[in-house]
């Protein structure tokens, strides 16, 4: 267990996320164990698996990682999974995301301390290095968990199961934390976990612990 654990002995099931939201990580951390379900059915309507929202200089900004042809062609009656989806090179998106993060968070207190962890997914060889949506999302998730002190993902559930794969936590109430442009833009809730980390650094753990909600 960790200091976040609200449900000892439980495993929460979640859909994949690209730089998951603060609320998503609060949900994940509330259980002793977690499984991010990359074997779940691919649904193009579920954009958060490859889209995140940050606070840019003018307000919220969506960053989307484009996907391309899946790793296999689904046969009749077979459903594609998130683990089947490949990264696209369209629009050199990694460069756009890198520039956007530098613009949005370059002046935050902890950007320079944490950004190196995420540079492999902001580099020109990201598509060749990671290849799949699952590989990128897992890499990012591992870095975030390490910074927040959250236990690694499981492969097999332990104890009771809380299925949150279709329950979006983004609308949960959220108290303000320090944001570098709050004087200009006001507090912007429900952003990527990067916003909390770059603005609050090690205090992100304390803030997140206070905002673990019951199911």
Characteristics of this structure?
two-stranded antiparallel sheet, 33% helix, three-stranded parallel sheet, 215 residues
Q: How helix-rich are the residues, as a percent range?
A: 25-40%
Within the largest sheet, what's the order of strands?
A: 2-1-7
Number of helices: 8
Q: What is the number of beta strands? A: 7
What is the CA-based Rg, rounded?
17 Å
Major β-sheet profile: 3 strands, parallel
- Tally of domains: 1
Order of helices and strands: EHEEEEEHHHHEHHH
Low-confidence stretches: none
Oligomer: single chain
Query: Termini, distance in Å?
Result: 18 Å
Mean pLDDT: 90
Question: What global shape is seen?
Answer: globular
Coarse structural class: alpha/beta
Strand content: 15-25%
Q: What would your notes on this structure say?
A:
This protein is an alpha/beta fold and 215 residues long. It has one domain. The strands form three sheets. Strands 2-1-7 form a three-stranded parallel β-sheet. Strands 3-4 form a two-stranded antiparallel sheet. Strands 5-6 form a two-stranded antiparallel sheet. Strand 1, helix 1 and strand 2 form a beta-alpha-beta unit. The radius of gyration is 17 Å and the shape is globular. The model has no long low-confidence stretch (mean pLDDT 90).
């Amino acid at each position: 267990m960790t200091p976040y654990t609200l449900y000892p002995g439980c495993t929460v099931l979640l859909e994949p996320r690209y730089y998951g939201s603060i609320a998503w990580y609060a949900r994940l951390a509330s259980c002793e164990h977690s499984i991010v379900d990359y074997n779940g059915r691919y649904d193009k309507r579920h954009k958060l698996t490859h889209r995140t929202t940050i606070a840019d200089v003018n307000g919220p900004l969506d960053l989307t990682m484009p996907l391309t042809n899946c790793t296999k062609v689904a046969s009749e009656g077979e459903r594609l999974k998130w683990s089947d989806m490949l990264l696209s090179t369209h629009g050199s998106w990694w460069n756009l995301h890198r520039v956007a993060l530098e613009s949005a968070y370059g002046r935050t207190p902890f950007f320079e301390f944490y950004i190196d962890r995420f540079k492999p997914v902001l580099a020109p060889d990201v598509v060749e290095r990671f290849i799949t949506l699952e590989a990128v999302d897992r890499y990012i998730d591992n870095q975030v968990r390490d910074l927040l002190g959250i236990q690694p993902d499981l492969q097999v559930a332990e104890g009771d199961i809380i299925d949150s794969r279709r329950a979006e936590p983004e609308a949960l109430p959220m108290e303000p934390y320090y944001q570098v442009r709050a004087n200009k833009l006001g507090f912007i809730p429900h952003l990527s976990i990067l916003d909390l980390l770059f603005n609050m650094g090690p205090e992100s753990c304390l803030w997140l612990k206070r905002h673990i909600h019951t199911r």
